[in-house]
Amino acid sequence: MRQYVQAEQDKDAAHVRRYQAMPTQLAARTPESGLPARRLSELAEEAVRCTAQCCGAVATASDGTGERPTAVTHPDLAALVSVQDSSGDGPIPAAEERGDPVDASDLLNDRRWPDYRALALDSGVRSSVTIPFRSADLTVTLSLYSFRPGSLEDASHGPVRALGDLAASCMVRDRSYEAALTEVDQLGSALRSRPVVDQACGIVMHVLGCDPDDAFAVLRRISQTTNRKLSDVASAVVQRRGRGLEREFTALAD
Distance from the CA of 56 to the CA of which of 33, 123, 155, 248 falls in 20 to 30 A? Predict the structure, then answer.
């Protein structure tokens, strides 16, 4: 019996060494997801460090748009995410739907999610827990894995809870910051193009004898009907000084 126990311990130690030797792999799904993937990578790495008996972790984020940036601590775990994405079945979809942790204390005896279960056991994983964290319209999931059954039962109440909440809040803040930068850039572009638009409006006012609002409405209609930017339409009007455009202006004004 003692020899059997020692053999099992040696097997677990070999599994751990193999996983620890593997480099971190980020499975970012879109080119723009660098920042979310970095946040998720930090979450997964820190969760492994502070959870006993944990051999690896996966962190994902979803906002309902179909994009799912993902970070895994070991390449083997990326396949566990893929099989859940393709089948729509597994701890990650279940945790996202329920909003509560999904625990698989012993996958050898757990008959849920057959595709996920088979792949996990083939990788040496015996137990897992997936914890969802929601902030605004964003759902972050953290999946922890172990080579031993029943070794992650208390993980969802440990330090990873604070780590997950912090990661979700930071990602929502990052998105708000990026949206603000985009808006500032758009406003800057609008301000840079405003003098040209004002000149074009003046030309339209002269040709049609209309007020500024009507002149701007004419330029906007040209932009919409030709699928061109308003600034490009204004530049074209200024370059031509309105010559040859009288009929078009009159038709749009009417």
Answer: 33
A 10 A CB-CB count for 22 gives 14
First to last CA, the chain: 95
Instruction: Please give the Cα distance from 147 to 78 (Å, whole number).
Output: 17
**pLDDT, tens digit, 9 for 90 and up, residues 131-188:** 999 988 899 999 999 999 999 988 888 889 999 999 999 888 888 877 777 777 766 6
Q: How far is CA 155 from CA 14, 54, 184, in A?
A: 23, 9, 42
In total, the chain counts a number of residues equal to: 254
Q: What is the pLDDT of residue 32?
A: 41
Give the model's confidence band at 22: pLDDT under 50 very low, under 70 low, under 90 confident, else very high.
very low
d(CA 240, CA 113): 67
How does 126-162 read in b/e, with b if 16+ C-beta sit within 10 Å?
Answer: bbbbbbbbebeebbbbbbbbbbebebbeebbeeebee
Contact residues for 201 (Cβ-Cβ < 8 A; gap 6+): 212, 215, 216, 219, 234
What number of H helices and E strands is found in the chain? 9, 6
Identify whether the C-beta of residue 133 lies closer than 8 Å to the C-beta of residue 168: yes
- Cβ contact 144:155 at 8 Å: yes
Q: Using DSSP bridges, classify how beta strands 127-135 and 138-146 pair: parallel, antiparallel or unpaired.
A: antiparallel
Q: What is the SS3 assignment for 102?
A: strand
